[in-house]
């Protein structure tokens, strides 16, 4: 996947004060959903994220929303890159895109952090927990995002949306996914009135940390962010504790909590509860099961794009074929064991 660099440079010179071309664009290996590129130009480095080409699912790949939420969070305690320019004109490089600050930091691809010290692991997990609490304590109205999502009945709306997306991208019948959807519809908890900004894909490899300390520099990949329910982010991240660390999964199942420095799921959730003032998290089995379902629906969409020839990383995308049933089975295990 390449970018028309002369066209991009001409647009940036007209819309980004201080930018001076030429520019080169090199695609990052990540960015499975929205292709992401390192830009090198006369003034230094920046990062470009764009929509993928082809027919896209409704509400997916929301580049404009990603730009807007990071721009709004800039003055808050939530670490995000600086935003430079948003382009919604598909004629420039083929799809809409935005350009943001290049943050020099380390990406931690494996949540078990096998090469780190216990102190570094403990610090990284504490920093993630603190940032999540800070995000959920942001005053949505104060940062100008009151219209960023519909408050109330978040899980009912999300369940309907992701079920619709899953059905639209279904490539074969997965009985456990059907059973999971049926259970979630029956177990849906009553709306408790909690409203916050949610990231939507809050996991360790969507963050940049300092190279020499467990300091969180920036949270990225806000494509799925919205005004919603804070427990969605918490449960989504806590899937990591239950996923295996084999194959294409990068989880914490089997990691020794006594020596690793990584907190238990229960301790992580309790710390979040203290930081936010929420305390104990109710209906935890539902929230975890929903998180597994949602990830399964996302991966099913990735698989559908791969089969249609529109995936950013086709080889990685095709692995979703075997991972979706695994996630559905893990969700049913959560339900049967009641977390």
Automatic annotation (TrEMBL):
Residues 25-250 form the Aminoglycoside phosphotransferase domain. Pfam families: APH. One of its GO terms (molecular function) is transferase activity. Keywords: Transferase. This is Phosphotransferase family protein. The lineage of its organism: Bacteria, Pseudomonadati, Pseudomonadota, Alphaproteobacteria, Hyphomicrobiales.
């Amino acid at each position: 996947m390449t970018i028309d660099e002369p066209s991009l440079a001409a647009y940036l010179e007209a819309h980004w004060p201080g930018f001076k071309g030429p520019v080169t664009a090199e695609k990052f290996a990540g960015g499975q959903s929205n292709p992401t590129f390192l830009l090198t130009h006369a003034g230094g480095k920046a990062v470009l994220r764009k929509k993928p080409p082809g027919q896209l699912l409704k509400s997916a790949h929301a580049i404009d929303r990603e730009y807007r939420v990071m721009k709004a969070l800039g003055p808050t305690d939530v670490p995000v890159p600086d935003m430079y320019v948003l382009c919604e004109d598909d004629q420039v490089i083929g799809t809409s895109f935005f350009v943001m600050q290049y943050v020099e930091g380390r990406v931690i691809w494996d949540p078990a952090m096998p090469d780190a010290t216990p102190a570094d692991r403990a610090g990284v997990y504490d920093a993630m927990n603190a940032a999540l609490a800070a995000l959920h304590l942001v005053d949505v109205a104060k940062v100008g995002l009151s219209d960023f999502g519909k408050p109330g009945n978040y899980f009912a709306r999300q369940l309907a949306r992701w079920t619709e997306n899953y059905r639209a991208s279904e490539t074969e019948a997965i009985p456990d996914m059907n059973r999971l959807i049926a259970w979630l519809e029956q177990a849906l908890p009553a709306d408790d009135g909690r409203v916050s900004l949610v990231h939507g894909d809050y996991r360790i490899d969507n963050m940049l940390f300092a190279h020499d300390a467990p300091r969180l520099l920036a949270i990225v990949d806000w494509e799925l962010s919205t005004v919603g329910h804070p427990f969605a982010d918490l449960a989504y991240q806590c899937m990591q504790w239950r996923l295996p660390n084999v194959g294409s999964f990068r989880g914490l199942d089997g990691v020794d909590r006594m020596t690793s420095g990584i907190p238990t799921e229960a301790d992580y959730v309790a710390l979040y509860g203290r930081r936010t003032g929420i305390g104990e998290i109710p209906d935890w089995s539902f929230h975890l099961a929903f998180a597994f379902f949602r990830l399964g629906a996302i991966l099913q969409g990735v698989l559908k794009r791969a089969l249609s020839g529109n995936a950013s990383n086709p080889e990685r995308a095709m692995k979703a074929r075997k991972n979706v049933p695994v996630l559905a089975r893990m969700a049913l295990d959560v339900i049967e064991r009641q977390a």
